[in-house]
Amino acid sequence: xxxxxxxxxxxxxxxxxxxxxxxxxxxxxxxxxxxxxxxxxxxxxxxxxxxxxxxxxxxxxxxxxxxxxxxxxxxxxxxxxxxxxxxxxxxxxxxxxxxxxxxxxxxxxxxxxxxxxxxxxxxxxxxxxxxxxxxxxxxxxxxxxxxxxxxxxxxxxxxxxxxxxxxxxxxxxxxxxxxxxxxxxxxxxxxxxxxxxxxxxxxxxxxxxxxxxxxxxxxxxxxxxxxxxxxxxxxxxxxxxxxxxxxxxxxxxxxxxxxxxxxxxxxxxxxxxxxxxxxxx
Length: 281
Hints:
With 281 residues, this protein is mainly beta. Helices cover 12% and strands 54% of the residues. It has helices spanning 3-7, 80-85, 95-100, 154-158, 178-188; strands spanning 22-29, 33-42, 48-57, 66-76, 104-113, 116-124, 129-137, 142-153, 163-175, 194-206, 209-221, 225-232, 236-244, 254-265, 268-273. A 15-stranded antiparallel β-sheet has the order 1-2-3-4-5-6-7-8-9-10-11-12-13-14-15. A hairpin with a 3-residue loop joins strand 1 and strand 2. The radius of gyration is 22 Å and the shape is elongated. The model is unreliable at 264-281 (pLDDT under 50).
């Protein structure tokens, strides 16, 4: 079956999906809805395999159409990840980081509604496991969601060897509107996604620095991503700003540290700004 043939009405994001997928399932239902059991999906190379069950309801009204599947196990190996993503009509970002994840396993759910696709579950990767949920809204043209991990080798995924395991929770929102992003590209250029990320880091290590209870926020206009880090301590806060322009060159990230003391000095809070660090090394 070709997804493009059944997606035009309710899931335009799949309209260019031309790779054949082999499907086996037991199907019951009527013109109102269908139930699927023992679902098996794979590519010809079998570098992408899926075992699942699910249902389709609202077949008589495209606005009420709901496709739901519980994925018992998905495995994506080799270049299948990049090949599958290439079918989607969105700009390809962070493909190098995707390759760093190695073989990806997925257990969870996905739903297709009227011009909206949403996914949730557990990603199993080489650097560590990630719980996530995200939604692609075809009406507003935004992708947004949350991720959470207790132990993830972020440095391995981002090609930053000095960055070790992290435990964190993050929310994100990215703009995928071609008209809106095209306007910004003409103004600022750039190679980054456009959006924002807010993260609460429970535990992380960078070089010899071990931090806990850290808040990180990042905003990107497509050309430059600028972020703020706040590590609160008993007597002082360690603050820093950072920026980068290319996710494939994260070792060139620019970091500017600051210190903020809690005590009063001359009736004012003391604040010392350190000189800028040219790159992460």
